[in-house]
Amino acid sequence: MIVSNLQNSQRVESLHPLFKPLFDYVKSHDLLHAELGRVVIDGDNLYVNNTETEGVDAACQLLEVHRKYIDVHILLEGKERIGWKALEDAGNEAKAYDASADCAFYAEEAELYVDLKPGQFMVAYPEDMHAPLIGQGRIRKLIAKVKL
Q1: What is the mean pLDDT of residues 116-121?
Q2: Which of 78, 82, 111, 130 is the most exposed place for a label (fewest CB within 10 A)?
Q3: For 34-55, what is each residue's pLDDT tens digit?
C-alpha cells in the first residue's frame, strides 16, 4: 500500500508503466465535474471508475482484494477512510475470488485505517486487502484499475 497526494505522484510513477499515464490523465482533466462512470485510458489495461456514493460504517464494510489489477483510490471530494490488512493475515473469506469481477471479500477487521482528503490517493496492490468508502456523507472519488 502507498499513500500520497497528487502533487507527489511522480515519486510512485516509476513503480508501474501505467502509473504515469494515469496520473497525467487525472491531473489534466476536471474529473470532479465530469460525468460519473467508466473512463477508459488504455483499454482494459488502465481505466478509471468515476464514482459518487454515501460513506458507510466501518463495521459494515468488507475487506476486498484483487489479483489482476492494482487499485488506485483517488479522493476528489468529501472524506474517506480506507481500512487495510495484509493478505497473508487473511482468515475469514466471506466471498471466494470471482475471476470475472477480479475480487474476493473477507469479513474481518482491518489492522489500520488511512484517512484521505481530496487530492490524496492510496495504491492497493493484490497483497493489500482494503475496505474503501468508510465515512459519513457523500464521497466523490476515482477508482483506477491498473492491470498487472
Answers
A1: 98
A2: 111
A3: 999 999 999 999 999 999 999 9
Using CB atoms within 10 A of its CB, is residue 72 exposed (0-12), middle (13-18) or buried (19+)?
Answer: buried
DSSP state of 69: E
pLDDT score at 15? 97
DSSP string, the chain: -EEEEGGGGGGTGGGSTTHHHHHHHHHHS-TTSSPSEEEEEETBTEEEEEEEEE-B-GGGPPEEE-SSEEEEEEEEES-EEEEEEEGGG---EEEEEETTTTEEEE-S--SEEEEE-TTEEEEE-TTEEEEEEESSSEEEEEEEEEE-
Grid cell listed for 14: 516509476
Q: What is the pTM of this model?
A: 0.95
Strands lying side by side in the sheet with 69-77: 2-5, 120-124, 69-77, 138-147, 46-54, 37-42
